[in-house]
Design a protein that fits this description.
Elements: H1 5-15, H2 31-45, H3 59-64, H4 67-70, H5 89-102, H6 106-135, H7 142-158, H8 163-166, H9 172-193, H10 198-212, H11 222-233, H12 238-244, H13 246-264, H14 282-300, H15 321-339, H16 343-361, H17 376-395, H18 401-425, H19 430-440, H20 445-457, H21 461-474, H22 478-490, H23 494-507, H24 512-524, H25 528-541, H26 546-558, H27 562-575, H28 580-592, H29 596-609, H30 614-626, H31 630-643, H32 648-660
Helix pairs in contact: 1-12, 2-6, 2-7, 2-18, 5-6, 6-7, 6-9, 7-17, 7-18, 9-10, 9-11, 10-13, 11-16, 14-15, 15-16, 16-17, 17-18, 19-20, 20-21, 21-22, 22-23, 22-24, 23-24, 24-25, 24-26, 25-26, 26-27, 26-28, 27-28, 28-29, 28-30, 29-30, 30-31, 31-32
Length: 661
């Protein structure tokens, strides 16, 4: 007689039921109805995001400047370290498909994210409708347990915290990995429930897991969830359970080992390319107490959501100890439920398992990031739905119990959907996102800097100065000083721009960006000779940038060194023949040198390339007047006055033409 572990396990499967028996009768909710309801709810909640017209934060680097997205040839799939999402090929492939369909239009990318989010919700519903009957063994009909599963999926889908993954395109890999975690786990459960087709279901689970390996390392949690599910809901020893599912667990483990061996071997940083320490520091672990407490509080009351929390400004050191002890006690309680094989244990411990990689293994530079709540929220949503249904059955006995529970859940779900709808409105522009971020986290230097940059791009440098100055004060970075000096130059405050640049150069003496702004400040202060010295140094150290030579030419012009200016502008055009400032500068230099015929082609090309350039039009009109083409000059002078009615030089020249006529 064969007494192998495999045959023994099969024998037990025929004779031993699941530890938690399922209800035998009742009509479940149609899967098609669930699909339509979930999809409609998400589309309504995210409908306010369809008006987004720009890419924000690192979406630009990830999508608009990523060769792996715009040109997915094999040659571009071996980029240097630091390329966004370098080790997440499936996520990059999805961006590449979006690029092929939509180009630089954000609408399509957001539509893809929303559809992906719907898919994650459906996968959660599929898993939850298998968990719920085991949580309510013999106590509820399939319709009731399906209603609890549907409520959990809706809470998960419509919670405002999910906007940090769904609306912000840079975290699509999180949603993709969550999808494959849930689908793989659901397939594994189907295999356990149907021994006759177990191998097929488990092979499908492994295929989904393999796809998830190309999305994000979050997929590595799948075997942990599978072990927890099988341990909690099936009556057998751990050894027998592992042997019964050896194909599944062997495949999971093999996939992880292969990925580590071939993809991450020798990589000094976190696989994502982030500057992340792999060794967890005690201070980081301690601060996870208040961080996780904040996550839980936000899940219950979703206020204070921001795109970028930045460095942690909450309790640190001894002040974090009470929070840490609270979280540790809560986690220990959830683990105890699992060890005792309580049905609620699987749901309760889900949050801690899903949050553990970011809060218990990797030492991230930013301890708190709400996008890390995406998959953990699935466990919290299932737990919330279970508690509400249980409370209803206990405190509202009778025929109206389920109706009252459904009404309560409907109110919560509607409130979450409305909050998500409002939250998505803030993503319509970079300025609105960062203004909201600064309002809620005024000490976050990245938020301050990005708001300043957004205001600069909108042509509001005076408002940008405040935020760029705050960013430089909060975080001593070269780019903060450079952009602050740039904004000060734009508002004409050359004295302050010079002071900021000179102070910054003491810390960053080799910064060309800061030196360029120092040169522009000298020009504003009426010191073209000093500006020329600064720009000459920049051009000498960075000789292949056309703008550096154009800046030098402008300073030399103002210093009256016309011949040198011509040489500088010619060098700029040799590097970039289409550079409008260099075209205008060279034309003006030739005009001042008494060579208007030579100046005309350059000035005409400068105006053609930038018709809104008032100084270039004025210079062109002056050159035309110098060669006797008064009619052509009048056309350009009128164009200048149409854009700048108060331009005195254009009015004077046009009046002179009238008197002449």
């Amino acid at each position: 007689m064969d007494h192998s572990p495999e045959n023994s396990a099969r024998s037990r499967e025929k004779t031993l039921p699941s530890k938690h028996t399922l209800p035998a009768a009742g009509k479940p909710i149609s899967y098609l109805v669930a699909v339509l309801l979930l999809a409609t709810a998400v589309l309504l909640a995210w409908s306010s995001s369809f008006g987004i017209t720009e890419f924000v934060f690192d979406e630009t680097a990830l999508i608009l400047r990523n060769p792996m997205v715009q040109d997915p040839r094999p040659a571009n799939w071996l980029p240097p370290e630091g390329t966004p999402s370098r080790h997440r090929p499936l996520a990059l492939l999805s961006y590449s498909l979006d690029w092929a369909l939509w180009g630089e239009k954000p609408f399509g990318y957001h539509l893809t994210n929303i559809l992906l989010h719907i898919g994650v919700g459906l996968a959660l519903f599929s898993l939850a409708r298998r968990v719920m009957p085991r949580v309510f063994p013999g106590e509820a009909s399939p319709r009731t347990t399906d209603a609890a599963a549907l409520a959990a999926a809706l809470v998960f889908l419509l919670h405002p915290v999910q906007t940090l993954v769904v609306t912000y395109l840079g975290q699509r890999c999180v949603a993709m990995a969550a999808l494959f975690v849930l689908v793989s786990l659901s397939a594994a459960v189907r295999g356990w429930e149907n021994p006759a087709s177990r191998r097929a279901w488990h092979l499908f689970a492994l295929a989904c897991f393999a796809a998830g390996l190309g999305s994000k390392e979050l997929i590595w949690l799948t075997p942990i969830f599978a072990v927890l599910y099988e341990w909690t809901f099936y009556r057998d020893s751990a050894a027998r359970l592992l042997w019964r599912s050896r194909l599944l667990y062997g495949g999971y483990l093999g996939g992880i080992l292969i990925q580590i061996l071939f993809q991450y071997a020798g990589t000094p940083n976190h696989p994502s390319g982030e500057a992340t320490e792999l060794i967890l520091s005690p201070s980081y672990l301690l601060v996870q107490g208040p961080v996780i407490t904040h996550y839980l509080k936000t899940a219950l009351w979703p206020a204070g959501l921001v795109l970028d929390w930045g460095p942690w400004f909450g309790p640190n050191g001894w002040a974090a100890v009470p929070y840490f002890l609270f979280v540790a006690a809560l986690a220990a309680f959830c683990v105890a439920l699992v060890l005792r094989r309580r049905p609620m244990g699987f749901v309760a411990v889900w949050f801690f398992v899903a949050i553990f990689p970011d809060s218990g293994i990797l030492n991230h530079p930013d301890p708190l990031c709400f996008y890390r709540m995406y998959l953990p929220l699935a466990g919290l949503a299932m737990g919330f739905s279970i508690l509400v249904f249980r409370a209803g059955r206990r405190f509202l006995p009778g025929r109206n119990s389920q109706a009252a529970v459904i009404m309560l859940l409907a109110a919560v779900i509607l409130a979450l959907g409305a909050a998500t709808f409002q939250r998505n409105k803030m993503h319509h522009s970079a300025r609105s996102i960062w203004a909201d971020n600064v309002e809620k986290c005024p000490k976050n230097p990245r938020a301050r800097y990005n708001l300043g940059r957004a205001l600069l791009e909108e042509g509001r440098p005076a408002e940008a100065v405040e935020h760029l100055a705050a960013a430089a004060y909060l975080w001593d970075l070269e780019m903060h000083y450079a952009d602050l000096a740039y904004a000060l130059n734009l508002v004409g405050d050359g004295g302050r721009a010079k002071a900021v640049s000179e102070e910054a150069l003491k810390k960053y003496p080799h910064s060309l960006a800061i030196k360029r702004n120092l040169g522009h400040a000298e020009l504003l202060l009426g010191e073209p000779g000093k500006a020329a010295e600064v720009f000459a140094e920049v051009a000498r150290r960075e000789p292949d940038v056309a703008g550096n030579h154009a800046n030098l030419g402008s300073a030399l012009l103002l210093a009256g060194r016309h011949a040198e200016a011509v040489s500088a502008f010619e060098r700029a055009l040799a590097l970039d023949p289409e550079n409008p400032p260099a075209l205008n500068g060279l034309g003006y230099a030739l005009l001042l040198a008494g060579r208007p015929e030579e100046a005309l082609p350059f000035l005409s090309e400068a105006v053609r390339r930038n018709p809104r350039d008032v100084p270039a039009r004025l210079n062109l009109a002056d050159a035309l007047l110098s060669v006797g083409r008064d009619t052509d000059a009048a056309v350009h002078l009128r164009a200048v006055l149409s854009r700048d009615p108060g331009n005195r030089e254009a009015a004077r020249l046009l009046q002179g033409l009238g008197n002449k006529g």
